[in-house]
Write a structure and sequence with these properties.
Number of domains of chain A: 1
Number of helices of chain A: 8
Oligomer: homotetramer
Helix content of chain A: 25-40%
Structural class of chain A: alpha/beta
CATH superfamily of chain A: Glycoside hydrolase/deacetylase
């Protein structure tokens, strides 16, 4: 039994430092690397891909709407064609740094508002998938199980990797509970580590209403921007190890 | 006997249209396509690469300093490492659109201020060349004969393609005469077409001081932003044909 | 009887030219000048404000979401505070060029997606209005009669100027008919000129369903990006003159 | 006897935090606030101007070349007219936030590469000064004593404020010694505090070759980006106080 740990990386920009990439990279198995649209720049991309290579983390494209000042967190009503071409551009950009480092680009995970919209909006999801098909159909698509993005990827013959969030409550339909609800974000590290492990070993999660929801937990999203977050990743790894779950980059089955 | 005709393409941006790409593309053999740093955006890249494919024009990366408002025309004292990584980023971006269109990326030609600086500054030239080597050593490097960029390319084992400017006067050392000098820019279309042809057939140019300078004319830079420019390309092609010179994309020897 | 003619101006950017500002400026009475977020740059702002001064057109801030590549046409879920501060920034920027030219900044008209959202979303409208109050409460706010932006302006004690679109069909509630409906955009110049004039003289418009809707037509939005558009402005002016309607910049009552 | 302490502030951007503004603002008397070209955004500007108001720090425009990814540290060969208009744009933008906060904009200090170039290049210095004259001739211009910027300001009838760097070695001609020379940057806090005080009390500095150079020390540039930097400001203030030097915002004489 195994699972992937993915984390957003390479979100510095110019003189601005963000995230504890040096500390986190050794602890994760997949790095979602910013491609310059919400964060990252060519210098940061170079260093981040190199850092991932050094620690054998699989590299993915963390593609975004073009919104640096908003960090890609603001929904935009871009057309599917705009999203497709923006995605293709970013895939190419990060792909060049992978080529330079002699490592493959392995996956794609949309960022921020684009991630959220692509879970629900099939037209946007299809647009992202079209870019992947055009660029490299071997890329894994990280998506929430049951989401529009997962469906779009599978419909195009791509491999979708089921992503779960151990620090978030789930609805009975397998979607994430709104952050506005009490208890929607779980802060206790022990509880998060325990949830992460149980998601993987049981293939399910207990929803906010008590329902047990089946959930394909192939990659766990972790955060790397605070010392507490780094400790949490360590704890998740320890708890997974105790339960006999290996951590390894996601892979096509 | 043959020569390449190269022209800057894909320099529109968002709602802004620039250049007569639709009219020019059928007339040229190499398109230098903007990669988003001085002009171009993902939508424009998609359309431009598709247009080049349609007309069998070879596609090149027209890489630039990151200066959209200045159209890449302003010198910046970026470090060689910044130039290397900015180049790699842009190569990857356009490369993705080539991949999507099923056509190869064939060459690189720096744009504007970066072009001018790379002809003289070996450290910048080396930086560009390192990016090419890392991305695809089969890419042709368009450079003025005798320039630092040509030397850097050749030193790294890349193929440099000798670029000439039929509408510009030359110094006795084979460099371009400053635009500030009287007669530095040749406006008479017939004269430009004649010069272009003679450069190719004779392998030389008569410098501003009367010296005959040997010049490897493998690709001729033409412009495509005014109706007059389009007519000029037609005239150059006609004059070349009369002299038995074929036009064809530049290629490794 | 009089009415204002407003037109978007100063939408060039860097090397990119957009709009026929030189031809249009003499024909209009209010210029909505781009402030650098969807179009315009400091050089363009300088020239445009100077051009407006020369032709005695009143100058307004054409504020936008920060989306150059999308020309401000894409909705973004920016927070009201972001919109307030983005608006304040743009008001200041254009205000500096007005100060340099010795002319007042007279009005504000949001651009594109922000315009559309501010007609309906009171929180966004209030955000824009707060920026105006903080910067200069004497600024006129161009807004569709009955819109959220008009209400927000009036609630804050600002003067809202009723804006109408002579080339657009209206719904019975005084809102614009969706562009997707047949007949929503009126293309016949004579009909547009006639509608414009009747809106002003009658203070009403015949909606798409035949209803006569009262409409405070204080400023008419005209376009200036094609030769045909320029002719249309001339025709509107001629038709207004025939009906005894003067054109003059909007003013506080 | 009194002196001003100025520090760069408001250099965060979007989600990126830079500098210890909250800790530093109470310790300084003039805040050079980024205007969005090298750092800062409308949200950051709002907060920074508010913070300055709260602590009664005088507010200045920290204008820059448009180079966010390079943090304004890279020289660009922009034309004087471009620099003039870019400066005017930034003055207006920050001026709007000052107006909203009910505080005056008091000074201008170019940032990074523009600062360095404007000390030596009279044409650029004149361009900046023209923007100041057009926007508000009461603005103080922070410039190194004897610099082109000081001369340009004085020639236009503006007040130039003599800026000194207590942690930098000086040449015998009153210019800063190159950072590449050994000893060019002074790291010992006690020594820096001592130098700062002596510059103010003696009106001179001992140059790197032992020469005593007269120097009009009206404002001392301090840094606020590390805990050590904050301590250093405290130490400078203490040492100034011991010597009977008050700290107060720079003012026209």
């Amino acid at each position: 039994m195994h699972v992937d740990l993915n984390c957003d990386m390479g979100e510095s920009f110019g003189t601005y430092q963000l995230g504890l990439d040096e500390q986190v990279m050794p602890l994760i198995t997949s790095a979602n690397v910013a491609c310059g649209f919400h964060a990252g720049d060519p210098q940061v991309l170079r260093r981040t891909v190199e850092l991932a290579r050094l620690h054998s983390a699989a590299i993915g494209a963390h593609v975004s709407f073009p919104d640096l000042v908003g960090f890609g967190r603001r929904e935009m009503n871009a057309t599917p064609l705009e999203v497709e071409n923006d995605t293709l551009y970013q895939l190419g950009a990060i792909g060049a740094f992978c080529k330079a480092a002699g490592v493959p680009l392995r996956h794609i995970k949309p960022h921020g508002a684009l991630y959220n919209m692509a879970q629900k909006d099939r037209a946007l999801a299809d647009a992202i998938v079209r870019a992947v098909v055009a660029f490299d159909p071997a890329l894994l698509v990280f998506a929430q199980p049951g989401s529009a993005l997962e469906q779009a990827a599978q419909a195009a013959g791509l491999t979708a990797i089921g992503e779960v969030f151990a620090d978030r409550a789930y609805n009975a339909d397998g979607t994430l509970a709104s952050r506005k609800l009490p208890g929607a974000v779980i802060h206790d590290p022990e509880q998060v580590a325990e949830r992460a492990t149980r998601m993987v070993t049981s293939g399910s999660v207990t929803a906010i209403d008590g329902t047990v929801v089946p959930l394909r937990a192939e990659t766990i999203c972790v955060h790397g921007d605070t010392p507490g977050a780094v400790d949490l990743i360590r704890r998740i790894r320890a708890r997974l190890a105790e339960s006999g779950v290996d951590v390894a980059p996601a892979a096509a089955r």
